[in-house]
Here is the input.
Amino acid sequence: MLETLGNLGAGFSVALSPPILFYAFVGCVIGTLVGVLPGVGPLAGISLLLPATFGLDATRAIVMLAGIYYGAMYGGSTTSILMRIPGEAASVMTCIDGYAMARKGRAGAALAIAAVGSYVAGTGSIVGLMALAPPLATFALRFGPPEYTALYVLGLLVLAYMSSGSMVKSLAMAALGLLLGMVGIDQMTGYFRYAYGVVELGDGLGVVPVAVGLFGVAEILASAGQPAPPEVIKPRMRELLPTRQEWRESGWPIARGTVLGFLIGILPGSAHIIASFVSYAVEKRWSRHPEQFGHGAVAGVAGPESANNSATSGAMVPMLALGVPSGPIPAVMLAAIMVHGVAPGPLLIQQQPQLFWGFIASMYVGNVMLLILNLPLVGLFVNILRVPYPYLYPAILIFATLGVYAVNNSVVDVWIMLVTGLLGWLLRKLDFETAPVVLGVVLAPLLELSLRQSLAMSDGHYGIFVQRPIAATLLAAGAALVLLNLYSFVRRGLDWRAKLALAEKGEAQ
Amino acid sequence: MRQGVVTLFTLLALVTPLAAMAQEAYPSRPITLVAPFPPGGVADLTARPVAAAMEKVLRNPVGVVNKTGAAGAVGMQYVAASKPDGYTLLLALSSISIIPEADKVFDRPPAFTVDQFAPIALISADPTILVVPADKPWKTAKDFIEDARKRPGQISYSSSGIYGTLHMAMELLSHAAGIRLRHIPTPGAGPALTAILGGHVDALASGPAVVLPHLKSGKLRALAGWGDKRVAALPDVPTFKELGYPDAEFYIWAGVFAPKGTPEPVLAKLRETLRVAVGEPEFKGAMDKLETPIVFKQGEEFQKFFDADARRLAAGVRKVGRVEDKK
Amino acid sequence: MTTDRVAGIGLALFALIILEESWRLRLPLGTMAMPGPAYVPALLAGALVVSGVLIAAQGARAPRLGAVGWGEWRHAVAILAVCAFIALGLERLGYRLTMSLACAFLLVGIERKSLVTALVVAASIAVGTHYLFDTLLRVQLPRGAFGL
Here is the structure.
């Protein structure tokens, strides 16, 4: 422990040196800007700026890239709350209650809580990263295909908890999302599925165009033609800050989101998206007022925004401790340090203590910077709501298209956004929730691949899912969840039958 | 409103053919080097220093654009279909000869064919090496192959995806040694490495640079390489050729291509540019840090290497065939 | 017809089309032990058919389709047409030109703003976002035939 503190002290002396401080600041500013652009999330942000870091030394490069990474995670909530366009895929859940809060005139509060939640989550998860990196990373590697299959199944069951309306409708939406996620090259056999000669569809429907279409474009389609356009909101200064009540309601969700996000974030894969979904579901289940969710519940912003931020630090655990590219973003960051001749690997912490501890310390500093940077921006951003809707929505549309296009430089993504926008509008009119569709699109390729990989590993025996302890535990948890639900369902059903019987008896009398 | 829509689209139709522009001295505007894989991958990390060195030699901007998707097919198709004027170039990896073959296996119209490209120069070629977790009993490639013979289809390996480079390397070995292994495809080289480090598979064919740190830390053990010669960083690891499997030869290589039909003077200029560019000390330094050996070939020599490699890979893809047909 | 009936039938039909397409594209189904490329899609499509039918069956009490209010459809179609224009124009006309035209059209053609205001607003949005993201942040945006 003392040694850790000593190392951290040395790290801070690196992180607080003016050049490092400068690059961390530049990273944070760029990250925030890139994160505000819908669609262009942390991955696109750091990919675009990777070449610019080739001229720097390894520590400066990684500090700047990390700044962009968590800066973009902070910025992602802005457009979600103000325009209902997910700033990046992990902000989908923020769209729902964040935008509802904005329409009630609480945009400032939502943005401030998102920023503070992100700060707490960012800082808290670095403590976790510092203290637990090596053992956790080894644990994370034990997640092979069977464990992932179990985890994703659990994720889908959580979805059942998320639904507020009819269960059948949510299931239908999940099935629709999963089906849409089937488009593209089948990873196991190389077949092109439902791509009809469009090579760009080989990687499937991107989460970003689908999410922006289903949320952002659908919102524009539904609102623009209303006889009375959405009213202009003139935020007043004292309304910018969250009330005492709102702070109280977001305290525990932030704490839970931080822990949850960190744990899910460690697992290699697209974990931060899933982390925000799970956090939303947990908060809704935990809340004393689940009926407020979807209509501007503070916890629905605080939880997921904290979760997706602490997942970013979680994702760095396997990367730093073992040199394993645990996802697309850590892979780019590993490339960045490789370019500088630093070999990422299990020996990184011993061989490059200055880089590792400097990096950790700069993450603390960067989070403080982001909070200082973002809170005043809240006052600036909410003014967007003063723009009358007829002027606002063309700008939003252009902004959304720009973001969607920029992710892959692909016009096909713009078409996907158009079609899912139409779909989202229709589904909304017909009273369906679209969040399960997005979760389906995220999970489908992961779930299918890991299921089939597991079966390839076991030569077709399903026993592999119960023989491995982690997978078995996860599946047992899922089964318990289902049984619990079934139990309450049956009891309610019995109640209802009992009442009916009583009523019949009454009639008979 | 309807009129407005019509006007917009008419404008669009009118303007499309205007794209043709007059020819000028080459190069007179920025050149785009397309990397068909995401940033941070081998293609991207090679493309960046190549572009920087070319820029210096040509005194003309050379930008890298990542056109990613469908295991590289999107970017390759994009370059194959772009105007052959020397302003759109491709930095391709070995997979350029695999994708059209895989399309053939499935009887689908190919996204592009190899003869849509004019090879300019080979930049690097790195043989793959066979690694296993250090806690596995196999100490040498011989142990591994003998055990695989005894237990056909029981030893598993991860790859960067079906028909991906890492899959093809293993397939060539399996065929050369007459063994059958169990294939677990993953979505990329990163996940393939994660799978073996987590102990979920028994073997992996990988580029040397990626696994070197894990060999040093003692987590993995290298058994043999697919190269013509031993890898400089691993002098004790034999090649399959030495072990008597000359057909197990495979390289992850990177080369620069132009679309077919690019005028010969432009191609000549590009060849000359690249020849000077790979000699630049900055370029050498950049490739050194990636631990990727520069192997420069151009003209006839590159064409020969490319053809031989394409033949090997085509045969490999055909042997794999459609996976479920073989069950 | 109620909303749920229409939606349920629509979803079930979509799932049936997927099933038909999987068969037409000859995607192998595989077995339970070794699922092929069509296995999971077929399972999901089956689930969607079932839930679609259930939604339709229980949908008698949902609001009638006409009661939802489709007043904004003209706007919606126009906006989608503008999106299509952007998709077609982006790489041909370049980012700035396409976006200026699209935005100006939305403002003049749909929102009935004056031509001058619309052009000024449209051009400044297009050029401003281009400057911020392309020039400053190096997000590459297409230039098109005119270099705009």
Q: What stands out?
A: Residues 50 and 66 of chain C are 26 Å apart (CA to CA). The radius of gyration of chain C is 23 Å. Chain C has two domains: 3-68, 73-136. The longest helix of chain C spans residues 3-24.
